[in-house]
Amino acid sequence: MRTVYVNGVYLPEDQAQVSIFDRGFLFGDAVYEVTAVMNGKMVDFDAHMDRLERSMSELDMSNGYERKDLLAIHKALIERNDLEEGLVYLQVTRGVADRDFDFSGLDAPLGLVLFTQAKSLESNPLAARGQKIVLADDQRWGRADIKTVQLLYSSLMKTRAKKQGADDVWLCRDGKITEGSSNNAYIVSHNNEIITRELSTDILHGITRVSVLKIAEAHQLKIVERAFSVDELMSAKEAFSTSASGFVNPVVSVNGTAIGNGEPGEVTEALRASYVRESQAASI
Ligand code: PDD
């Protein structure tokens, strides 16, 4: 059984509890981060905590946490759960209060929950075979750049994708791809340009995206940050997604149509291999 962290205490997972009045539960008033662990060490910890602080600040959540304490909790959970490979999930909620849309007078302590999930990241079978994607309209709220726990639309669309025999969904706004259910989206053009939507409130500013674009640059690949259309995706040489939980993940078909030759692409595979190597080397 896992040991988890809830509001200052480490507990067996079946004893961990949060209040029914927690605003995370009642309003989705909470933000989160997911950090990858390889060989018992975290990838891009500081970048995840920077983004957490930004999410909190965008939602007017006071930041009551010291980075070193969050680091200590992450490390303690990895150790207590003997986590070699997988994820650490962290959630901060606005805290516990009687149900009220207005939180302006609220003076409750923030809620903090962390737990680990064992997962095969480096040798994920999906990376070897490539993902089948279906497309759906992006009907999420307009601040996809804030990492809130309001994930219902993405969760519904991913479930629908699975029912259709696909692995994941990519979302589209005005005929252009925004991002995946829980990953950023890319195409590789026939002249080996890496095209991915520019940062805005339409997408989450992925931590893996930053690392992978740096690696692509080091591979002498041209990076073009702009929205790409469904037509461009369908005729791309390669496509892939990035996230803390999937690293660099090839896409082999979209709505049943093969992308490129229908196999994971060579540019994608090279980026994945470099990403695994470099993030492992920099992990803490
Ligand atoms: N998801 N876009 C969305 C909508 C996401 O939820 C995520 C991450 C990303 C990629 O961000 P990063 O590279 O920082 O992981 C992009 C996490 C893994 C999740 O919800 O489980």
Give structural notes:
This protein has 284 residues and is α+β, with helices and mostly antiparallel strands. The chain has 2 domains: 3-118, D-amino Acid Aminotransferase, Chain A, domain 1, CATH 3.30.470.10; 125-282, Alpha-Beta Barrel (D-amino Acid Aminotransferase, Chain A, domain 2). Helix content is 30%, strand content 29%. The chain contains 8 helices and 15 strands. It has helices spanning 23-27, 45-58, 67-80, 125-129, 152-163, 207-218, 230-234, 266-282, and strands at residues 3-6, 9-12, 30-38, 41-42, 86-93, 111-118, 131-137, 168-173, 176-180, 184-188, 193-196, 222-225, 238-243, 247-254, 257-258. Strands 7, 8, 9, 10, 11, 12, 13, 14 and 15 form a 9-stranded mixed sheet that branches. A 6-stranded antiparallel sheet has the order 2-1-6-5-3-4. Strand 8 and strand 9 (176-180) form a beta hairpin. Helix 6 packs across helix 8. The longest helix has 17 residues, at 266-282. The chain is globular, with a radius of gyration of 19 Å. The two termini are 25 Å apart. N-(5'-phosphopyridoxyl)-D-alanine (PDD) binds at residues 34, 179, 182-184, 204, 206-209, 242-245.
